[in-house]
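Box 3.1 A note on notation
Throughout this textbook, protein chains are presented in two layers. The first layer is the amino acid sequence; the second is a token string describing backbone geometry. Keep the layers aligned when reading.
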Amino acid sequence: MNISLQRFLRHLYFLCQKELLSLFKDPRMRIQLVMPVIIEGFLFGYAANYNIEEVPYAVVDNSGTASSRDFLAHIEAAPTFSCTAVCGNVQEVSELIDAGEILGAVVVPENFEKKLLHGGQAPVQVITDGRNPMIASMVTNYIAHIAADWSAAGGFAHETVTIETRTWFNPNQLSRWTFLPSFLAMIAFVQVMFLAGLSIAKEREQGTFDQLLVTPFSPTEILIGKATPPVIVGLFQAAMVFLIARFWFEVPFAGNLFTLLLTLFIFMVSTTGLGLSISSVAKNMQQVLVYLLVLMIPMVLLSGLVTPIHNMPEFLQIITYADPMRFVIDAVRRIYLEGAGLTEIAWDFVPMVVVAALTMPLAGWLFRHKTT
């Protein structure tokens, strides 16, 4: 092996050892690196859930007939619906919705049975809480499906075409199946950015930065030594989230572990470059935290983690091409749920590699510029 390469690897080893010891030597830091990941992993699995598992609702039966009672009983028999109030008029429903006690109400008109017996349409009013449009839409769709089933079972409607739906990769349409794989990327993003961003600024604040510069390490070796530990920690934390998703919440993993790790590694290198660039510019850790928050919030919002990219305005969709988190979330979801291989997610690598190729040299230039 070349002597210069041997020296470089030895220097890199000692630098990484120093950084990892500084992270894990402090018991408080060990807790901060492990416990938030576990807590947030469980919170995302349980709280970040757009599936309706219990719908408290009220009924207003203005018809009072056998047909209306049978129809309302059919709704109440659905496992996701729970009738919490029987109201005499819509005004009482309004008060319950305003108080947040119900998510919706079903209002049956007086002539409900009469219209059914005469072969006409019998409209039923569904009132929902529009303060959460997504939940309101889902409640309306659930009741519409129940009404269609009841009509067909009672012989009030005869459909010549029936529709059977199937959802690929997430057959039960569970939102945690989407969120938990995405959280692999998000936890890596947050932790790597903070660790990389604080690394150089922390040395300056503690007064050890000048001591580091008088060592026989070159600025490039110092920079790489600073970049490697955050990537290692990020991979470790992503592995913890993966274990929680796979074995606690039982989200099936359809992909290849090597492909998943490679995707996360490339993404972490690009975010490490961003963090080190910020750390090289900032004078202290307070400035780093401000810069990171200003940068991270837009990156998360533009990543497609919560809202689909295609729902954003066109100019924002163009901006998302500079956000590596957009592409790692797409890649991780496809690997985890779809079982996509390297060739199928190859184009997701391109923006991440471009960001890494730009930010790492930028961080190196800024680091050398500050040291000289």
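The chain has a mean pLDDT of 81. The first helix runs from residue 3 to 24.
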